[in-house]
Amino acid sequence: MKTLIALIGFLSLTACTGGLKTQRLQVQHFDKQGHRGCRGLMPENTIPAMLHAIDLGVTTLETDAVITQDQQVLLSHEPFFNHEITTKPDGSLVTEAEEKNLNLYRMNYAEIKTYDVGQRPHPRFPKQQRMAVHKPLLADMIDAVETYCRNNQKPLPQYNIETKSQPATDDQYHPQPAAFVELVVGVIKTKNITERVIIQSFDPRTLQYLHEKYPSIKTALLVEDNDPKPFALQLRDLGFIPAIYSPAHTLVTPLLVKQCRDAAVGLVPWTVNDAVRIKELKQMGVTGVITDYPNLFKGL
Taken in order 163, 169, 175, 177, is the CA torsion positive or negative? Predict the structure, then answer.
């Protein structure tokens, strides 16, 4: 296990960080990440959203993964049908009271495809284009993006895939971490895109399993805006140094930028929907930004 003496020094945590393994991220450009494709402009986590994000010049497609009853990896932010965006097969609207009973982990993909997630106007994203569209499988999204890029002479993107899990809902809304990771890795290996994949999570268990079993796959630690733990303690608790540290953008400070740079960790905050703030963060030295509006990257 590689000991990071320089990192231990600047973190001032010699006793608890010695021996951490690290992933090195080779930052060659400012990483323009489209959140759920381009949620502000197109229905989130759908193939049209991903293709439009490609047209807007993103370098990374950020998305979310859940698992279906028939063990398929599905793009969805929630492990159920969100009432804000979902229309039932009979044309009626999913209500907030019933959404969590529409558990994707208890539904086969053939049934999931019959629900629409693009025709309802989004209450928080008025610019989002409305269309008939369903939640796609990760494999189908990758196929569509790779084909689109090759046919249109576009650079092939990275994929930043979040494992949507937490201990409280194991075996209720998703499988245990090891099974979850194996299903996701199975897709990315089949599609031969491993070198262009980042797996991110707020759940350290999936990242820890991934790092031990598949250390060559890049990982990103997501951090909530109300998380009080500093950078050093986050890494200590994770048990290794990920390729990317991905906090809420309100947590970014000059000190955090320096800590990430010194640790050779990419710093990619979320979710930044203001052009001025994106430029400010870039000037501070973050290595990328996640936004619902990839059109804001124009001119960067």
Answer: positive
Q: Domain 5-78+136-297 is in which class?
A: alpha beta
Contacts of 197 (CB under 8 A, 6+ apart): 158, 159, 160, 161, 188, 217, 218
- Cβ atoms within 10 Å of 19's Cβ, excluding its own: 12
Q: Compute the distance between CA of residue 156 and CA of residue 50 in angstroms, rounded to an integer.
A: 12
Q: What digits encode the pLDDT tens for the residues 60-99?
A: 999 999 999 999 999 999 999 999 999 999 999 999 999 9
Q: What is the CA radius of gyration of the chain?
A: 19
Where along the chain do its domains lie?
5-78+136-297
pTM of the model: 0.93
Which of 95, 84, 66 is closest to 128 using CA atoms? Answer: 84
- Give, as one character, the DSSP assignment of residue 59: S
